[in-house]
Amino acid sequence: MAVGLGFDPVREVTNMTVDLAKPDLETVADERRLAGSGVRISRLDRSSVPGVLEWVATFGGTWAAEVSQAVSREPIGCHVARRGDAWVGFACHGANRREWFGPMGTALSERGQGVGAVLLRRCLSDQVAAGLASAQLAWVGPISFYERTVGAFVDRRFTLYRRVLSRG
Question: pLDDT for 87-126, tens place per residue?
């Protein structure tokens, strides 16, 4: 129908849901292991916001704007990972909607080390503390990561369309 009206499909996106009563959201042992390899995990502090926004902008899209929204909340809805002075991961919640998780990004050099899993579980723990029963993982990337890490399941798929309007 949309194509017949002059719209072109641009991208397929997926939302997932996680029942916050089900997953183990404990991170202490994993944070200790990561610290042993030089990665520090923490809630983003206000003094670090400009630096993390600059780094997040390198991922592209609207993520820097979404992180800006997450840091406007109290407590800040963003957790970060650093190796030395370098940002290596971030995850946020509540940026667009209270029950939404995301965006989240991990430096290519750190993927597969558990950084993203810790950041995800920390954000979901915040959402549990806020009284939420479930969280929506919006526009997710690696579906299997979220299934494996917190038992999330696909509940929506979207097709994004675009139509170029002519002037005149």
Answer: 999 999 999 899 999 999 999 999 999 999 999 999 999 9
* pTM metric for this prediction: 0.92
Q: From the centroid of its chain, how far is CA 79?
A: 10
Q: What residues contact residue 16 under an 8 Å CB cut-off, 6+ apart?
A: 136, 137, 140, 143, 146, 147, 152, 153, 154, 155
Q: Which of 31, 111, 112, 36 is nearest to 79 (CA)?
A: 31
Please state, in angstroms and rounded to a whole number, the distance separating the CA atoms of residues 79 and 151: 21
Sheet of strand 78-83, all strands in order from the earlier edge strand to the far edge? 39-43, 78-83, 86-93, 100-106, 134-137, 8-19, 153-162
The domains located in the chain, with CATH, are 8-162 (3.40.630.30)
| Residue 104, C-beta contacts closer than 8 angstroms, at least 6 positions apart | 89, 90, 91, 92, 116, 119, 120, 123
Cα separation, 136 vs 58, whole angstroms = 25
The label of the residue with tokens 């202490």 reads 28
